[in-house]
Every structure is written in C-alpha cells, then in structure tokens.
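Model the whole thing, not chain by chain.
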Amino acid sequence: MTPQDSSAFLLSLAARAPVIPVLVLEDEAKAAPLAEALVAGGLSLLEVTLRTSSALDALARMAAVPGAVVGAGTVLTPEDARAAKAAGAEFAVSPGATPSLIAACTGIGLPLLPGAATASEVMALMAAGFRFAKFFPAAQIGGAPALKSLGGPLPQMRFCPTGGITPESAPDYLSLSNVACIGGSWLAPADLLAKGDFAAIRRRAESAAALRD
Ligand SMILES: O=C(O)C(=O)C[C@H](O)[C@H](O)COP(=O)(O)O
C-alpha cells in the first residue's frame, strides 16, 4: 500500500471517531474486555503500543472483538511492522518515520501513520506521498497553536496530534481544520486497567466520542 493510499485509508478510518485510545497493556487477559468497553463507548479505532511483552498477544485478542479496528503503536522498525501485521494489526502508528519503516509498511500492505514534529519532517512525509501524520509529542512541542501554525504553509497535511493531550485540551485540537482525530492514553490509564474498571473506561470513551457530536 503506497503512502498516498495509506493516508487516504487512515483518513477514512479517522472519520469514525474523534479519539484513538493509546493503550499500554501489561496483561493480555485484559485485552478483550478493554476493547469491548472502548467500542461500546463509541471508540472503534484502537492503538496498542508495542511497548510490553504482552502487546502482540493483546493486539490479536483485541482485533477479534467485533467492531474494533486495531492498530499497533510504537512501530519503530520493519520487524515491528511485520510482527504487528502478523498479529492482526490493520494499521501501524510510529512516533516518527524512517525510509526503511515506510518501505516495509508499503511492501507488506500495512497502512502507516508516521510521526512528525517539525515542518521539515512534515515536508519529508509529504514528499514521500503522505497526507496524514501523527503530530508527536503534541502538547510538549507547542500544542494546538503549533499545529495551527504548521497548517499555514502546509495546509495539505492532516494530523492526529498525540502526546500530553487531556480531556480539557482535546477540543482545542479538534477545532483545527488540519486535525482529523487525536490520540491519547487518558481513556485507559494504568490504574483503571490494573483495577479492571472497564465501566469507568467505557464512560471515558463515551465522553471522548461525544467530543465530535
Ligand atoms: O508509543 C508511541 O508510539 C508514541 O508515540 C507515544 C504515545 O503516543 C504517547 O505515549 C501518548 O500518550 P499520552 O501522552 O499519555 O497521551
């Protein structure tokens, strides 16, 4: 899948929900109930970060939940991309981008949401054919005002800002014309996951889903 097709596909997915929960799973047994809670709350796009030993198993279990569209996050290398695809990931998210990662995702047909933090990085992605990128780490590099400024000279590019976004700051990002959706870990924080409080996670998902009503 080319970068152009990748971005078009992911932009169509982003229209489904304003927020992509960024998930760090230490226990794959929590994967299915977590995905069910998020989907029931109205968030169908899920990103499982490849940061834990359980991540690929968790991803596979979440991908089997009806209504869930599951991608892998923290995809850094071609090996990560291949492992994610084999586990059932429908897309990959990276905090940045390298030529080898882009080539690998193109080669195996895994849609990639590459990361960028500066105008030069965004321009390099545009030159490769992308029209949709993760803006990371969003809050720390200037937040919604920085993203709005990038949209001046680079209006063709759309973004999924991620990093340091809260329920309070989310509307500032979602109001920007170059934002397709946002990502964040606040939907399923470690304490709620440890307690198995899926009802609370579902309520957080409902509030997040309502951000674009
Ligand atoms: O794992 C990745 O690939 C990342 O790029 C990092 C995540 O996007 C952030 O960890 C989001 O987490 P919060 O800032 O807590 O919302």
